[in-house]
Amino acid sequence: MEFVVLGLHPADRGTWWAENLPIILIVVALVVLYVRGVRFSNLAYGLMSVLIFMHTVGGHYTFEKVPFDWFNNLFGFKRNMYDRVAHFSVGFYAYALLEYTDQRDLIRSRVISYLFPLCVIGTVAMSYELIEWVYAEVAGGDAGAAFLGSQGDIWDAQKDMLADTSGAILALILYALFGRGRQPLRPVELQS
Question: pLDDT of 53-77, one tens digit each?
């Protein structure tokens, strides 16, 4: 419902498509996984839905123009931090990644099982920043700037990647506290 309502009269239709295509792909992937029997916990689905919700709102307004003054004023930010908070929520997918590898006992070492989703999120973050850069170059002008959303910050890409990774760290802490992660750490098993 949110997707349909926010798809009506967005600030910029091209930016709306560019921002929502990845979200559509994520939702389709989650549906396909569910149909194929890959099920996550309610907490994992809840965490993953944060990005879907926030990205849909960001696509409607463009991330730079989302009415987020209450948050920016609360913390004294001079720029609109909605995009940074949305990037933070990207990291929440680390919870589901770790849950998946644990359900199937795919990684024997607890240390590696926690590092794997962190590295995946870091790679996704970097890849998305490259996609933003290419789109901004190709689209150019206002559409490129709206999609890029750097708001004049030359370190925007690096800060976005840090936000993604920080969200992943929080998700992994949540998994350690509330998921199957409450198991004791297993030592790395050496293979001969």
Answer: 999 999 899 888 899 999 989 998 8
pTM for this model (two decimals): 0.85
> Of 20, 85, 84, 23, nearest to 49 (Cα)?
23
